[in-house]
Amino acid sequence: MQLSKQTHHAIRILVRCARAGTKRLRAADIARAERITEYNVAKIVPGLVRAGFVETVRGRSGGLGLARPADEIRIGEVVRFTEAARIRSARKGGTARSAPKRAGTPINQVVGDALEAFISVLDLHTIADLAGSKRGQADVLGTAAEEPRSRKRKVVA
Q1: How far is CA 148 from CA 35, 41, 145, in A?
Q2: In sequence order, which residues have a C-beta less than 8 Å from that of residue 28 and are 6 or more positions away?
Q3: What are 57's strand-pairing partners?
Q4: Quick check: helix, strand or coil at residue 88?
Q5: DSSP string covering 26-50
Q6: What is the CA radius of gyration of the chain?
Q7: What are the DSSP E strand ranges found in the chain?
Q8: DSSP summary character for residue 123
Q9: Cα–Cα distance between 51 and 94 in angstroms, integer?
Q10: pLDDT tens across 67-81, in order?
Q11: Are 101 and 93 in contact (CB under 8 A)?
């Protein structure tokens, strides 16, 4: 299963908040640090608040922070929340963009079982696992690790 960009962004936002500890972060700072547009951060954060992963505080010392300890937020839980429409569709036998097919067909049962197995492995890991990794967050998530490419061209004589 391939996770959506929104899911990757949500996990990266949560990891960034976990690494900040009790310090509140501004959405713009998260966007800049994670190389996510401010629009996408602003679109994802309200869902993370509704799901109980993040809390926001208004005012001078406000910002974003985790609503629960990072070691209590399971990666599978985040994926279930952010991929809810795709997961429901797969269980019914359709795709996120197509009409559902008959749920009773053997292939749909196999795909549903595989999806459950995939997410059960993610449930073994928490945001704290990613936040505490010795490798950089970009390495753990396989995102945003690109170094700015030099525009200089090699001249061959």
Answers
A1: 12, 22, 9
A2: 38, 41
A3: 63
A4: helix
A5: -HHHHHHHHT--HHHHHHHHHHHHH
A6: 19
A7: 54-57, 63-66
A8: T
A9: 25
A10: 999 999 999 999 999
A11: yes
